[in-house]
UniProtKB/TrEMBL annotation, chain A:
Keyword Transmembrane appears in the UniProt entry: yes
Protein name from the UniProt record: Ribonuclease kappa-B-like 2
Gene that encodes the chain: Rnkb-L2
Top-level taxon: Eukaryota
Membrane association type: Multi-pass membrane protein
Length: 105, 842
C-alpha cells in the first residue's frame, strides 16, 4: 500500500493533468454528442464522401450528413473513454501523491 | 496624506540620544522600522568606529552559533521555528549570551575530540582483533605447510611425520621472526613488490583481507584493509621490513607467538572493545543531548545576535556629542509617523531609565528619499514601476493605475479563456495558500519571482478570461452562448458546386441584422477570412487603447506641474502637448469610430463598405495637405463627412503651431524673467556700488549675466530635446501600441496550430472500437503539456514583457521623472529576512 512508483513532482504533475483531462474531455465529449458545429473541422470523414466522384447532389449530401453524425458519435465516445482512463490515472497519481507525502512527512 | 497617489512627505530630523539610552532607543526604532539613518561618519574606516569592539564580539558570537548550527544539522536534529520574535537584549544580557556560547562551544569541542580519540582507540583494537584471528591461520599453515609433497614413497606415518616436522619446524621457528600488521588493501601489491625487491626474496608475506570496512577516525569514511604477516630471519631483515612497513603506513601490532598467549590476548581485546563501545555510545548520547537542548533556543539566539549587531552598526553611524555625553543622529522620517517615532523613543528611554531623547526637525535642500506605503497587494505593482526608476520625491506615482492597466493590456495580447483559466487558477492557488507558502524559505529564484507576483498573475488571468470572452477564443475554439447571428441559406446544389460561399451582411436572411450580444460572433472562427476581420478589429482597438493610455499620461503631468509650482510648464508644455495629440491622433480615433458607425452593409451605395475610405490614407493625405478632385456623379466620396477637408487643414495648422510653441515659448519666458531679475539686482547693486566695493558687485552682476547665458543655452537645448522627443515619440509610440494586435494574433494562431496539429490527430484517429480513446488519452497529455509550456509560460512571459515596455516607455515618458532614491528604513524585519536568506543560500 506504500509503494512509491514516481516522485513528488511526477505525481503532482500527473494529478493535475488528470484532473484537467477529466473536465475538458468530459465537456468535449458532451459537445461532440450534441453535434456542436464548433468542432466541425475536427471530424473524420472519408475522402470518398468528402470529395465524391459522381455528381449525385441529394445522395452525396445525405451520405455526408450521415458521415458527420457517425464521426461526431465516434469522437464523443473516444473522448469519454479517454476521460475514464484519466479518472483511473487520477486515482493512481493521487495515491502516489499521498504515498510521497507520507514518506516526506 | 498617506496614499499611493504621490510619495510620502519626509522630514529630516536630528536625534539627541543620551549614551545610556542610545542602545534601547535604537532597538525600539528598529522594531518600528520607519526611520532611515544617515551615515554621519562616511570617511571613517570600519576599524576606527566607536563600537567596533562590540561588533567584533557579535561576529564572534555569530561564528560560535554557526558552528553549533552545523553540528546540529550534522546530527540531523530538526531546528524548531516557533515564529517568535525576541527583542534585542540589553548590553548586560549580551555578556551572559557570550559566556553561554563560549561554554557550549568548548563543551562541544571537547566532546568531539574525545569521541575522535575513542574512535581511534576502537580502530586499533578492532585491527588487533582481526590480526589475531587471521594470523591463527598463518601460524597453522606454517606448522603444516600445504605445499609439502606427499609422495607414496615418502610417506611417514603420522607420528613420525609430526615429530619430524615439529622438530624441524620448531627449530626453524626459533630463528624466524615475524611482523604482523594491517595495511590498506590498495597498497598490498606495491607493498609485496617492495618487500620482494628490498629483501631479495628472503621474506615471506602472507596476507588476508578483512571483510568489514573500518571507519577512518579523521575523515569518517569507510576503508578496506588487509591483515598481513611477514616472516623473516635475522635482525637485518627485521629492520628493513619494519622500515618498509612504516613507509607504506601499515600499522604494526605486537603479536605473541604462542597460541595460548594469542587466545588470551584475543579475549582481552574483546573485553576492551566492549568497554570502548559503551563509552563511545555514552559520549554520543551526551553530545546528542547537548545539541538537542541547544537546538531549542538556537533560532532565538541567532535573531538576538543579528539584532545586536545591526544596532551597533547603526550606532556607529552616529556622531559623538562630547559636551552633553550623548549621541547625535540624523535620519529621514515620514512626517505622518513622527508621533510613532516619538512614542518609540519614549519607550526606549523609559527602559533604560535616563533623560528623554530629543527629536529635532531640520529644514534642508537635499532631496529626501521616496517612500510609498504599500500593502502586500500593491507592493508587486510598485516593484514593477520601481524597477525602471524610483519616483522623484513627491512625484505622481504611476503604480495605482498600473494595477488595472497592466493586466488589461496583458490580456489584450493574451486573450484566451482557457489559458486565462489556467493562469487565474495558478495565481489564485498562490494567493489562497499565501501564508504557508511564504513561511517556506526556498532559494529557488524562479519560484520566488512567481510567488512575489501572485496578485499580478491572478489579475492577469482574470482579465485574460474577460478578453478571451470578447475575442470568443477558448483553446482556439469559439463558444456559441447566445446563438449566432449568421444563418446558412444555401441549398444542396449550390453547396455541391461551390468550394467557398459568402454570407452577405446586407441580406436579412443570411445575417439577422442584430449583432452577437457579447464578443465576436462564433461563426468567425469557422470562416476562411477570419484573419482579415480580426486584423482590422484588433489593429483599430490597439490604436484606440494606445491613444487613451498616452493621453492619460500627458494629463497626469498637470498634477506634477501644479505640485512643483511650475505653472509655466502648464502653458508652455502641457497645453501644446495635449493639442498636438488631440489634433492628430484623437482625430484619427474619431475617424475610426465614425467609419465604424457610418458605413454599413445596408443603406445607400455611398455608405456601403466598398466606398469606405482607408483611414490610414486619409491621415497621410491630411498631413501632406493633399486634396481630392471632386468627381461628379460618382457614388463613392473620398471624404467621410462634410467639411472634412477644411477641418483637417485647420487641425493640421493647430498641430504644427504647437511645435514652435513647445520649442520657443518657455526659453523666451525664462529669458525675460532673468532679464527682469538682472535689472533688479543691478539696481540694488548700483546702490551697493556706492556703499561697498563697487567692483565686487559689478563682477557679481557680470557673473550672473554669463551664468544666465549658459543657462539659456542649456534651457534651449533641453527644450529642443524635449520637443523633438515628444513630437516624434507620439508618432512612434502610437505605432508601438500595434504590438497589442501583433501578439494577440500570434497567440491565436499558435493556439490554433497546436490544436490542429496535435489534438486533432487524437480526435480523428481510431476506428469503430475504443482504440481512438487510448490515442486520445495519450495525445491529450502531450497537448496539455505543450499548452502550458508554450502558450501559457512562453507567450505569457512575452506578453508580460511587452506590457511592461508599454508602461515604462510609452506611458511613463509622458510625465514620469523617476530620479529619486528609495526609502530604506532601519527595520529588524528586513535585516532578519536578509540574514536568513544568506544562511539558506549557504
Amino acid at each position: 500500500m506504500n509503494m512509491k512508483i514516481c516522485g513528488p513532482k511526477c505525481s503532482l504533475c500527473c494529478t493535475l493533468i488528470s484532473a484537467w483531462g477529466i473536465v475538458q474531455l468530459g465537456i468535449m465529449g458532451i459537445l461532440f454528442w450534441v453535434r456542436s458545429p464548433a468542432f466541425i473541422e475536427d471530424l473524420k470523414i472519408d475522402d470518398s464522401i468528402m470529395h465524391p466522384a459522381e455528381v449525385d447532389i441529394h445522395g452525396n449530401a445525405k451520405r455526408y450528413l450521415e458521415a458527420m453524425d457517425d464521426s461526431f458519435h465516434t469522437i464523443a465516445l473516444n473522448c469519454w473513454i479517454a476521460a475514464l482512463l484519466y479518472i483511473v490515472t487520477l486515482f493512481l497519481s493521487g495515491w502516489q501523491l499521498w504515498v510521497n507525502n507520507r514518506i516526506s512527512a | 496624506m498617506g496614499s499611493l497617489f504621490r510619495s510620502e512627505e519626509m522630514a529630516l530630523c536630528q536625534l539627541f540620544l543620551q549614551s545610556e539610552s542610545a542602545y534601547t532607543c535604537v532597538s525600539e526604532l528598529g522594531e518600528l522600522g520607519l526611520v532611515q539613518f544617515r551615515d554621519l561618519n562616511p570617511d571613517v574606516n570600519a576599524f576606527q568606529r566607536k563600537f567596533v569592539n562590540e561588533v567584533r564580539r557579535c561576529d564572534e558570537m555569530e561564528r560560535k552559533l554557526r558552528y553549533l548550527e552545523r553540528e546540529i544539522r550534522k546530527d540531523g536534529i530538526p531546528v524548531l521555528d516557533t515564529g517568535e520574535n525576541p527583542e534585542a537584549p540589553m548590553p548586560r544580557e549580551m555578556i551572559d549570551l557570550e559566556v553561554k556560547f563560549e561554554k557550549l562551544e568548548n563543551e562541544l569541542k571537547e566532546v568531539n575530540s574525545n569521541a575522535e580519540a575513542l574512535k581511534r582507540n576502537y580502530l586499533e583494537l578492532t585491527e588487533l582483533k582481526h590480526i589475531l584471528k587471521k594470523t591463527q591461520v598463518f601460524f597453522d599453515e606454517a606448522m603444516y605447510p600445504p605445499n609439502l609433497p606427499y609422495d607414496q614413497d615418502v610417506y611417514f606415518d603420522d607420528e613420525e611425520r609430526v615429530n619430524l616436522l615439529t622438530d624441524s619446524s620448531l627449530h626453524q621457528l626459533k630463528h624466524i621472526g615475524f611482523v604482523a600488521g594491517v595495511i590498506l588493501r590498495e597498497r598490498i601489491p606495491a607493498f609485496e613488490r617492495m618487500l620482494w625487491r628490498a629483501c631479495r626474496g628472503n621474506v615471506f608475506l602472507r596476507q588476508a583481507e578483512m571483510d568489514d570496512p573500518l571507519e577512518d577516525p579523521a575523515s569518517g569514511e569507510q576503508v578496506y584493509k588487509s591483515v598481513f604477516i611477514i616472516f623473516f630471519q635475522g635482525d637485518h631483515l627485521k629492520m628493513r621490513v619494519k622500515k618498509i612497513c612504516e613507509g607504506f603506513r601499515a600499522t604494526m601490532y605486537p603479536c605473541p607467538e604462542a597460541p595460548a598467549d594469542r587466545r588470551e590476548m584475543a579475549m582481552g581485546v574483546k573485553t576492551r572493545l566492549d568497554d570502548l563501545n559503551t563509552v563511545l555510545s555514552q559520549t554520543q548520547d551526551h553530545r546528542h543531548r547537548v545539541l538537542v537542548s541547544a537546538a531549542r533556543n538556537i533560532r532565538a539566539w541567532m535573531m538576538k545576535v543579528w539584532k545586536i549587531k545591526s544596532i551597533y552598526h547603526t550606532l556607529n553611524m552616529f556622531n559623538l556629542d562630547v559636551i552633553q555625553n550623548g549621541l547625535i543622529a540624523e535620519c529621514w522620517i515620514p512626517v505622518a509617523n513622527l508621533e510613532d517615532v516619538q512614542l518609540a523613543l519614549r519607550r526606549g528611554t523609559e527602559k533604560s531609565g535616563s533623560l528623554p531623547a530629543i527629536l529635532n526637525r531640520l529644514s534642508t535642500h537635499e532631496a529626501p528619499p521616496t517612500f510609498h506605503r504599500t500593502n502586500k497587494f500593491t507592493k508587486a505593482f510598485q516593484t514593477l514601476i520601481d524597477s525602471y526608476g524610483v519616483a522623484t520625491y513627491r512625484e505622481i506615482n504611476p503604480a495605482p493605475y498600473t494595477i488595472i492597466t497592466f493586466p488589461f493590456l496583458f490580456a489584450v495580447m493574451f486573450g484566451d479563456v482557457g489559458h486565462g483559466i489556467i493562469m487565474a487558477l495558478f495565481g489564485g492557488w498562490m494567493v489562497w495558500r499565501e501564508k504557508p507558502l511564504a513561511a517556506k524559505k526556498t532559494d529557488n529564484e524562479i519560484w520566488n519571482i512567481f510567488f512575489g507576483g501572485r496578485y499580478i498573475i491572478l489579475l492577469m488571468g482574470l482579465f485574460s478570461m474577460y478578453t478571451g470572452l470578447i475575442y470568443n477564443d477558448i483553446f482556439s475554439k469559439s463558444m456559441n452562448l447566445f446563438g449566432s447571428s449568421w444563418h446558412g441559406v444555401y441549398d444542396e446544389s449550390t453547396i455541391e458546386h461551390n468550394k467557398e460561399l459568402i454570407l452577405d451582411p446586407g441580406n436579412r436572411e443570411q445575417y439577422s441584422q442584430t449583432p452577437y450580444p457579447f464578443g465576436l460572433d462564433p461563426m468567425w472562427q469557422l470562416s476562411t477570412n477570419k484573419i482579415n476581420f480580426y486584423n482590422s478589429y484588433k489593429m483599430k482597438i490597439s490604436i484606440i487603447f494606445g491613444i487613451i493610455h498616452m493621453m492619460f499620461g500627458v494629463i497626469l503631468s498637470v498634477w506634477n506641474h501644479r505640485f512643483f509650482d511650475r505653472s509655466m510648464n502648464i502653458y508652455c508644455e502641457f497645453i501644446p502637448q495635449v493639442l498636438f495629440l488631440t489634433c492628430l491622433f484623437v482625430y484619427m480615433v474619431f475617424l475610426v469610430f465614425h467609419k465604424w458607425v457610418w458605413y454599413g452593409a445596408l443603406g445607400t451605395v455611398s455608405q456601403s463598405s466598398s466606398c469606405a475610405p482607408s483611414i490610414l490614407i486619409t491621415f497621410i493625405n491630411m498631413v501632406l495637405v493633399k486634396g481630392y478632385q471632386d468627381h461628379e456623379g460618382e457614388d463613392c466620396s473620398p471624404y467621410m463627412f462634410a467639411g472634412q477637408f477644411g477641418i483637417q487643414r485647420f487641425l493640421l495648422i493647430v498641430a504644427l503651431l504647437c511645435v514652435p510653441w513647445m520649442l520657443c515659448v518657455k526659453p523666451f519666458l525664462l529669458h525675460r524673467n532673468n532679464k527682469r531679475r538682472q535689472l533688479v539686482t543691478q539696481a540694488n547693486g548700483g546702490e551697493g556700488m556706492v556703499e561697498e566695493g563697487g567692483e565686487a558687485a559689478a563682477a557679481a552682476a557680470a557673473a550672473a549675466v554669463t551664468e544666465e547665458l549658459h543657462d539659456m543655452g542649456e534651457v534651449m537645448i533641453h527644450q529642443g530635446i524635449h520637443t523633438i522627443e515628444y513630437v516624434l515619440g507620439s508618432v512612434s509610440h502610437t505605432a508601438s501600441y500595434l504590438r497589442l494586435w501583433a501578439l494577440s494574433l500570434a497567440h491565436a494562431q499558435l493556439s490554433e496550430v497546436l490544436w490542429s496539429m496535435v489534438l486533432q490527430i487524437g480526435l480523428t484517429s481510431g476506428g469503430e472500437g475504443g482504440s481512438g480513446g487510448i490515442v486520445m488519452y495519450l495525445i491529450f497529455a502531450f497537448w496539455a503539456f505543450l499548452t502550458v509550456a508554450i502558450l501559457v509560460l512562453m507567450e505569457g512571459l512575452s506578453a508580460f514583457l511587452h506590457t511592461l515596455r508599454l508602461h515604462w516607455v510609452e506611458f511613463q515618458s509622458k510625465f514620469y521623472g523617476g530620479t529619486g532614491y528609495p526609502f530604506v528604513p532601519f527595520a529588524f524585519e528586513t535585516i532578519l529576512d536578509q540574514a536568513e536568506n544568506a544562511v539558506v543560500e549557504q
